[in-house]
Design goal:
The protein contains seven helices and 28 strands. It has helices at 13-22, 168-176, 215-225, 240-251, 271-278, 313-332, 388-391; strands at 31-35, 48-49, 59-60, 64-67, 81-88, 103-107, 119-122, 126-130, 133-136, 146-147, 158-160, 181-185, 189-195, 199-200, 211-212, 229-236, 256-260, 281-286, 290-291, 297-301, 304-309, 345-350, 354-355, 361-371, 374-379, 395-399, 405-406, 411-416. A six-stranded mixed beta sheet has the order 7-4-6-5-9-8, with no helix packed on it. A six-stranded mixed beta sheet has the order 16-13-17-21-20-18, sandwiched between helices.
Amino acid sequence: MRDMLGREEVITVEKALEFVLKNLSVVFPSDIKLNIEHSCTRILSCDMYSPENLPQFARSTVDGFAVNSSDTFGASDGLPAYLNIAGEVLMGAMPGFELKKGITAKIATGGMLPEGADAVVMIEHAQTIDEEMVEIMKPAAPGENVIQAGEDIKKGALVLKRGHMLRPQDTGALAGLGITEVYVYEKPKVSIISTGDEIIPADKAVNPGQVRDINSFNLTGLISEAGGEPVKRGIFGDEYSVIKKIVEESLKDSAMVLITGGSSVGTKDMTAKIINDVGSPGVLFHGVSIKPGKPLIGGVISNTPVFGLPGHPAAITVCFEEFIKPVLKKLTGITENRFRGRKLIVTAKMAKNISSSSGREDHIRVALEERGDELWATPILGKSGLITTLVKADGIVVIPLRKLGVEQGEVVEVRLF
């Protein structure tokens, strides 16, 4: 069966993505050594184990008095415990004294507990009588207001797994363990090939019939956010031999190739033919039941995914999120857990009725606004070729394949950009 454009019937989003992943043997990128200051958002290429305890000593979590907890049992405002002050724990130094029974010492947050102490009384629960004695008005349980040695991370413990994307808190933990360099995967290169006789560079004046390149800039940002390294190959006219050559060159050093334009049916649209001619298995699908983005082409050439993207900016963003990003994430070496990689989703009420055609998945751009205590999603209407429909939008509402629309006031899920 063929669709209205004369192509084979389009397939679902899930089936299209499955086709690509089934025909792709993921090869992890090579790794490089980086200083942790430059490693945020990079993917670890090996497991990280702790070389030492963190912290290396028991330390106070509050300003107060280090005590043997048994000396404070039963203490209250009406009947405080009286302890002699042995001295003060200096920051960054090991205490030069031991706390015997009935003895305490001043201590600041982060200070090392002296031998004989097992708890800290907060300064708010103590009253200094003079330089030699303090009264304690509240009992402290063993271990109270103390971080024990190795309580945060124990020596030899697995701290971070291979395939983990490093976050600011991860680099902080590594720094605390004295680890200042890590091995991470190189970012997979993604070639962007812009095609179309009407496309000109963004810094050029526009003549009648011409349009400035928008899509390569949009894709550059999307690829970078997804952990890839975008490589702009340039703008090329609708000439078979020229596009075929740049595709072949891009395949030599790219983990993925994206061709913008040339995915719909027309005399100059030759992307599918080029993909098939350059290598196997070639085109896996041409046309997906999604709006915008129906003309998408997906293929694999010698284990490198190649996508032919529609020319409209909104369609490119939708196709990237649904197809390219999941594939690119696998190429980065990241290991997903059940939460990592999920789109940030909020619920809102639809501000107006929206209709949809059965048999396709509609992606509706929406802007969010607060009305009292409620969040409302207002559709940003306009053709997928209008970049402003993306600029004005906060996210996407997906109308499923067989749903005929959304009614005003209906609660929907908004996938935030």
